[in-house]
Amino acid sequence: MNINDFIFTRTAPKKKLEVVKNLQQGELLATTYKTILRIIKEAGVGDSNKTRCKFKTLYLSGATNDWNSKVRNIYNSKKDEVYLSVYIQGDDTDTECSYKLREFLDNRYEEQCLGKLHESFRNGYEHEVPANYDRSDRARVIRAILTAYIENKYADKLKEDTI
After folding, report:
1. pLDDT (tens place) for every residue of the chain, 163 residues total
2. Backbone phi and psi for residue 157, each to the nearest 5 degrees, phi listed first
3. Which of 64, 77, 95, 100 has the most CB atoms in a 10 Å sphere around its CB?
4. How many CB atoms lie within 10 A of CB 72?
5. How many separate domains does the chain show?
6. By residue range, what is the domain housing residue 102?
7. Could you give phi then psi for residue 62, rounded to 5 degrees?
8. Distance in angstroms (rounded) separating the CA atoms of residues 12 and 48
9. Distance between CA 87 and CA 98 in Å, rounded?
């Protein structure tokens, strides 16, 4: 199944959620940059009524690497460049950093480091804590993006189905 086409078809939102939930890792990693940019433009929240400001954000849940970091949201900025906002937590401190979505979707690499947190302790020991995402972690983030799109875009229809 080509998710890049299916996600925008006229299908019931419950059916779309079911399909996204059952997608395999390879199918999720086949999601294109153009598809995610369209997702942000359609379902993101932000100020898009002004001609100069087309900033939109899509908030995610469940987009983690199951270790030390999570992707909180994706947002677009100038010239349709999309970034991931990554929260990294270490032993003593935490930080927030941005990472380009184009590099995140690059499937040539098995593992990607989305950012590093520099920690130093009282005894003089210092080290960097990386936020590494392998292929299954990246597939989890893409699944969270697709799910957030469906839940935001079709919130009214999904509420009607549960009543």
Report:
1. 789 999 999 999 999 999 999 999 999 999 999 999 999 989 988 865 555 556 888 999 888 888 889 999 999 877 788 999 999 887 777 888 899 999 998 877 788 888 888 877 777 778 888 888 999 999 999 999 999 999 999 988 888 766 5
2. -70, -35
3. 64
4. 17
5. 1
6. 3-162
7. 80, 15
8. 27
9. 9
Q: At 16, give phi and psi (nearest 5°).
A: -60, -45
Residue with tokens 């949201």: 73
The Cβ of residue 158 has, within 10 Å, a number of other Cβ atoms equal to: 16
* Core vs surface per residue 119-143: b (16+ CB within 10 A) or e: eeeeeeeeeebbbbbebebbbbbbb
Angle between helices 135-153 and 13-21 (to 10 degrees): 170
Query: In the numeric block, which tokens belong to residue 8?
Result: 């925008």
- Looking at residue 30, the DSSP 8-state letter turns out to be T
Q: Which amino acid is at 147?
A: T
The identity of residue 15, as a single letter, is K
H or E element in which residue 126 lies: strand 126-134
Asked if 76 and 65 touch (Cβ cutoff 8 Å), the reply is: no
